[in-house]
Task: inverse folding
């Protein structure tokens, strides 16, 4: 169907897994599939006669202790340094598979088969792998690229609608930071996207994933440009943690907070801020930040990996498709937050 590339990674976008599986060297290499258990419930027929380890659904599995449990099972399966792992699931399984494959025997080959919209357009791409500590997300990890990414859009047919909408938040973020054309495409095709019209969803994945590929290609180790992907995430991660709400919903609120602060600093017009807010809301994402307790959030934000002493790099959009990176002190942040929220 479509093929994208970044660094030396190939992303195949196909309508079905059966079309994509030919790209895996299943005859050549000993392979273990790490499969999200919800995905397996619907799609077990795809993994007949394969070695499968089921990964219980949920963020709790992204932990060092669970990674160790899986590694013990890989040893029991007799894997060696020439074997490969294939992670099949959403961002949780992608992050976990990449982490395990990167540290098991000092690194074996891995392929990601993302099954949520969020993982197809974002989490699977870029080689950021990792697990959480008890309190903080993605605190332990490394950057190591997958050998290949296989996107099969048919997986989305069993994805709960709420999860589809969460994923759409990342595509809207990609549009905001890099592409007014993608923003217009999502605006114009929202109903078709939400009803998974095949051609439109394929085009959305291709356009959205391509933005992440271009950014990672230019800045694989997050020195500068890749930070732009954190638009909405400084507060988004804190909201996700503090309010235990899904990633997509949390970054929707994070984008609204970033836009509010940018408007307050006269770096963004209210009109553009409203345009973003309207699209997020039409997609079914939360936009009401009046319910957020900022004191509570700031405690989490202060633990952000991107903080530098008493300042934090925040991404603002200045117009749709154009961003700026801003060093904001906690002092300024708290003062601004009191005014805008
Ligand atoms: N590495 C990165 O660059 C990066 C970027 C963004 C997010 N992430 C991480 O991704 C994770 C979130 O990913 P996610 O939103 O995909 O969540 P997820 O992996 O938890 O999946 C969401 C839910 O959908 C279910 N599911 C997945 N695919 C399905 C399918 N096809 N049919 C039925 N059910 C299905 C899962 O069991 C789960 O319950 C977070 O841990 C986040 O930190 C990583």
Result:
């Amino acid at each position: 169907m479509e093929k994208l590339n970044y660094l030396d990674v190939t992303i195949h976008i196909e309508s079905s897994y059966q079309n994509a599986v030919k790209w895996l060297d299943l005859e050549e290499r000993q392979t273990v599939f790490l499969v999200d258990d919800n995905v397996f419930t619907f799609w077990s027929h795809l993994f007949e006669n394969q070695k499968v380890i089921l990964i219980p659904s949920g963020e709790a599995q992204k932990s060092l202790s669970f990674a160790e449990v899986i590694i013990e099972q890989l040893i029991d399966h007799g894997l060696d340094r020439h074997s490969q792992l294939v992670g099949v699931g959403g961002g949780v399984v992608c992050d976990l598979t990449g982490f395990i494959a990167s540290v098991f025997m000092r690194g074996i080959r891995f392929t990601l088969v993302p099954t949520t919209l969020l993982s197809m357009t974002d989490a699977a791409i870029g080689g950021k792998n990792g697990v959480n500590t008890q309190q903080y997300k993605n605190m332990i990890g490394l950057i190591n690229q997958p050998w290949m990414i296989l996107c099969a859009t048919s997986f989305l047919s069993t994805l709960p609608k709420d999860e589809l909408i969460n994923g759409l938040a990342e595509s809207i973020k990609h549009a905001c930071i890099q592409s007014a054309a993608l923003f217009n495409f999502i605006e114009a095709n929202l109903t078709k996207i939400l009803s998974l019209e095949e051609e439109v969803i394929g085009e959305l994945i291709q356009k959205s994933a391509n933005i992440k590929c271009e950014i990672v290609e230019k800045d694989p180790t997050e020195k500068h440009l890749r930070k732009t992907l954190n638009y909405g995430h400084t507060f988004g991660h804190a909201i996700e943690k503090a309010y235990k709400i899904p990633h997509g919903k949390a970054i929707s609120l994070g984008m609204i907070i970033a836009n509010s602060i940018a408007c307050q600093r006269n770096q963004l017009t209210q009109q553009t801020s409203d345009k973003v807010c309207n699209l997020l809301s039409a997609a079914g994402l939360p936009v009401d930040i009046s319910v957020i307790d900022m004191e509570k959030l700031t405690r989490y934000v202060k633990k952000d990996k991107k903080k530098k002493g008493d300042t934090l790099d925040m991404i603002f959009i200045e117009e749709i498709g154009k961003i700026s990176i801003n060093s904001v002190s906690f002092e300024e942040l708290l003062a601004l937050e009191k005014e805008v929220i």
About this structure: Residues 2-159 form a domain with the Rossmann fold fold (CATH 3.40.50.1970). The longest strand covers residues 311-319. The chain has a mean pLDDT of 92. The longest helix spans residues 198-218.
